[in-house]
Amino acid sequence: MADKPTLSQIIATHIYNHPQKRITFAEYMDMVLYHPEYGYYSSHTVNIGFQGGDFFTSSSLGNDFGELLAIQFYQMWENLDKPKLFHLVEMGAGKGILAAQILNYLTLNHPDFFRVIEYIIIEKSPSLKQAQQQQLKDFSVKWLALEEIKPNLIIGCVFSNELVDAFPVHQFTIANGKLKEIYVTVPEHRENNLSDDSLTETIGEPSTSKLGEYLQLVGIDISQKTYENGYRSEINLAALDWLGIVADCLQQGYVLTIDYGYPAQRYYNPRRSQGTLQCYYQHRHHNNPYINIGQQDITAHIDFTALEIWGEKCSLNTVGWTQQGLFLMALGLGTRIAALSHQEQSISHLLKRREALHQLISPEGLGNFGVLVQSKGLTHTQSQRSLQGLTIPE
């Protein structure tokens, strides 16, 4: 019985069979992360957690993140005049920990709101979906594909935490003031030896005119002399496609996107000449996406300007943008930190809890994440009601 091919061999064969003997980096990233059998998110190799994981998320640091989000969702329900059915749609729910935090908190503190919630999870990864179902077995939760949600169905909030950064991105570079795309290929001398895992990059004309249109959309002119030859960065066309689908699904309510990223002018600053692509493997990060294939996470920062502008084209109004640290402080995290000294717990437990809460707002880490809130279908009166997370924290 022949040995099963590795993911790198599958990719190499796919490249070799391609008419141009190359694929876009977006196609490569999609295979590495989402190949049905061997992709990082599709297999059981994905490891999320504060201890020993490839990376950790805000929900890995205790219940506070989910509980504070729940407070914001409750206010959203109030702002919409308490509809009798409120959809909470979580896009990419990890291991289901955040969903459990939200639902547990609402069960205990806002049972009136909890009773009208229909919680929906959109998850591509079979292994993560299995973990979510185990985590959430005590709650009524639906798992759907995004395409299964009918247009104008959702009244409530569609939200994501560290989702968009894992969408496959196109990589580009600048050559003599011109936009060029970075492709992934197999070195010619290795085409007859596809068991070799070696992949390399090549440069060519853009695979789609959408790359240039994207830069125009966000007001970036790469022909300026400040952009030197060899400058490279990423373009997340998948984020725009995703946001368009989300906007179509939403009848009335909010889109809440939490992720690390920048406005376009900062993202495409000429001095950020090597882009934002990062790989995460066992809590260490590096910038080589061609090793640990299928075993490591690959992410790129998101361009919040693109989400805002494209959202407006899709009938989403920008409610506000802030940093996660400020967002959580406005929702009461500062009060929780202050209350720690009055709690009767061991010193070691208090120190661990204090460290976790400070990590949520640290400007060098999670606190620097961006929080974008968009809305659709609100009446004039509803749109005038502020959101607590977007107010200036006391």
Gyration radius, rounded: 22 Å
Number of strands: 17
The separation of the N and C termini measures 67 Å
What is the helix content? Answer: 25-40%
Give the averaged pLDDT, no decimals. Answer: 89
* Total DSSP helices: 14
Shape: globular
**Structural class label:** alpha/beta
- Order of strands across the widest beta sheet? 4-3-2-5-10-17-16
Largest sheet: 7 strands, mixed
Poorly predicted regions: 49-55
**Strand residue percentage:** 15-25%
Task: Please name the defining characteristics of this protein.
seven-stranded mixed beta sheet, single chain, five-stranded antiparallel beta sheet, 34% helix, 394 residues
Short account of what is shown:
With 394 residues, the protein is an alpha/beta fold. The chain has 14 helices and 17 strands. The strands form 4 sheets. The protein has a 7-stranded mixed β-sheet with strand order 4-3-2-5-10-17-16, sandwiched between helices.
SSE order and pairing:
Blueprint: H1 7-17, E1 22-24, H2 25-34, H3 64-79, E2 86-91, H4 97-109, H5 111-114, E3 117-122, H6 126-135, E4 141-144, E5 154-161, E6 170-175, E7 178-185, E8 200-204, H7 210-217, E9 232-235, H8 237-249, E10 250-259, E11 261-262, H9 264-267, E12 278-281, E13 284-286, E14 297-299, E15 302-303, H10 304-313, E16 317-323, H11 324-330, H12 333-339, H13 347-361, E17 370-376, H14 380-383
Helix pairs in contact: 3-4, 8-10
